[in-house]
Amino acid sequence: MRDPVSTTLRLGALALALALAGTATDAQAQSRRDREAGEALNQRMLDAEARYRQALVQIANDDPAGMDASNAALEDMEDVILACEKQRGCSVPQLLTTYKRLLKSDADAQAGQGPGDADIDGLEGALPTADVPAAASASALLAEDERFKRMVQLNPAVQASIRRWLTDMRVSLMTSHENYQYMQHLMSPAFKRSGLPEALLFGILAKESNGRVHARSRAGAAGPLQFMPATGRRFGLGPDGTGFDTRYDPRLSADAAAVYLNERFAQHGNEIEYWLAGYNGGEGRALRVYREAAGRSFWDPGVYNQFPAETKDYVPMVIAAAWLYLHPQEYGLTFPKIDVRPATFTLERPASIYELTICLGNGTTRDGYMRALRNLNPSYEADSLLPAGTTLAGSTRMASLYKRWCVRGERADLAAELVNGDPRAAIVRTGAIEVLSTDGDPPPAALPPSAAAPAPAPARTHRVARGETLGSIAQRYGCDVPVLARANGLRAPAYALRQGQSLKLEGCSR
Length: 510
Hints:
two-stranded antiparallel sheet, mainly alpha
């Protein structure tokens, strides 16, 4: 770990040097070439600051390269300062702003943070976290809707739903928020482009799936926003020809939901309750009730009672989750603070998402990374063995932990052993094997070793045992999961098997 005192002193000394140098800044008019040179130095300083902050994240992840990277960034800043003092057109006070930010970050990191978390939590404003966005345009749109505010404050149904989210369903709300943060960069742009409230997207996600992209209802709705097959097809969602159902894709499902809700806006105006009633109970019913209502609100008894119980529950629950997303502090909510910056990493050895979940560990999270990995890589089954060279979507934290724990070493080997172990190997037969005779004939004499029959050829079919999955069977026989699935008519992503089913082992190497 870095020495926080020495780093702070170094930053402080550099800041003082900058301040003194600033008093000697040449105030004469600068040439265009001088200004461009000064701007280039300013950009170098910003780049060095970004590398320094990234190095702090590496240090927090116990990455030994972090210390060298932070020192290199500081040395680059020193070089920029020396060059700036000699360069007309370079603003030393502007460079001083960078050091002020870094000094504040370092001071925050030492202000009582727990071991291992100080470097990350000290970077206030530097890392995207799970805090509710304060000024996102879509969120502001919803927050400024006075009708919406009055409804939330006065409507007993929504108040009751807020109470449910804060009590029996608090864990679901927190889980939904954490899951959404990992997918926000994929899902929110569609709503923002359409002028739809991002908080409404979160409310639908929380109620429909808790942010689990592989959620599926008994009625056949699927994905993070639970599209039925027919509705999904209307908006371009469904099987993509590879066995993957794009209803499970967070980006594509959000795109479809934005188009769907814009259709509802065209029919119902700003009546968000009718939008949600159509989303849950079918747009045909919602449109018929809306036209018959002749301007009455969704909450009018003559309107409200025309919807089924599920829709009566659904509408206020979504609105309540959206409201809590915007105003957590008013209700004593503190959403998890996590590093969700998107990144990719490439497997250096074959592994499944299950295996990665084990070797990555918890990091600074409560539940680890399996759900985030599954949500960001929806086309892969959790137990499917992915070949080396596969690129997975994740976060910068996951990418760093993968390099540290999953490429080689005891934890990587342990994870592979735990995932690849066959539970049936625990059954050990002991004692002599009795050979029974038939029809009174004596049992045949045992063949000498030289006369033993040759070993049978590897089986070309496999009978599914209890608890087996397609991924574990593919791993056992060296098969490619998609090839094995197609050979047996199995559909992604569930690849549902039944005990006793016979599988054709096509494309298997052993």
